[in-house]
Amino acid sequence: MTWVIVGLGNPDEKYARTRHNAGRMAVQKFAKAHELSEWKEDKKANAFIARGLIERALTLAILPNTYMNKSGNAVSRFVKSVKAAEKLIIVYDELDLPLGTMKVSFDRGSGGHKGLESIIRALKTTAFVRIRIGISPSSASGEIKKPEGEKNVEKFILGDFSSSDTAVLSKVFKRVSEALETIIRDGRATAMNQFN
To answer: Annotated catalytic, 34?
Structure first.
């Protein structure tokens, strides 16, 4: 069965370097590092797709061309059953984690993330793997300083990463890539032990 890796974000160029696009950016880096095929547009799915073999397993990398809250439309074209969802990995930004961190989890709720809500609705299951990429600022002691209030949250997640953030992110993206490989090769439990 094919592995499906989805990088969540918003498709327009103006969102390319925003915090809400961390998942999309991470999957683009993964596809490049693993020499997956060129990105091709799939008009029916409304997504860009790159494919290749990772550890001898057929793998599809998907970047939905829909806005975040419609991500489920694209994902449901490739994941047709609850069983298939067990080989689905969603990579996305997480306000509840500090910048510079990532976490692998399985079978959880959406945590209020609109992209995940859309996917859970479309697939009618929460039983898939997530890789959450921290985007929140933190204090010197590591305490998260998350923005408060809907307007501030929206402004923050749709804001661009600074150049110092980008340097931190490149290390995180490398870990995300390693975690993706580990999930495909050794399974999610191993990846959770190794990366959390």
So the answer is: no
Strands of 57-64's sheet in order across: 40-42, 47-54, 57-64, 3-7, 88-98, 129-136, 102-106
pTM over 0.85? The answer is yes
The pair of three-digit structure tokens given for residue 180, joined into one six-digit string:
């993706």
pLDDT digits (tens, 9 = 90+) for 5-62: 999 999 888 888 999 999 999 999 999 999 999 999 999 999 999 999 998 899 999 9
If you search the block for the tokens 């001898």, which residue do you land on?
56
CA angle 97, 194, 56 (to 5 degrees): 110
Pairing of strands 47-54, 57-64: antiparallel
CA distances from 191 to 53, 130, 196 (A): 19, 11, 8
Strand positions, DSSP E, 8-101: 40-42, 47-54, 57-64, 88-98
Q: Which of 4, 8, 18, 20 is catalytic?
A: 20
Phi and psi torsions of 147, nearest 5°: -65, 150
Name the 3-class secondary structure at 26: helix
Q: How many residues does the chain have?
A: 196
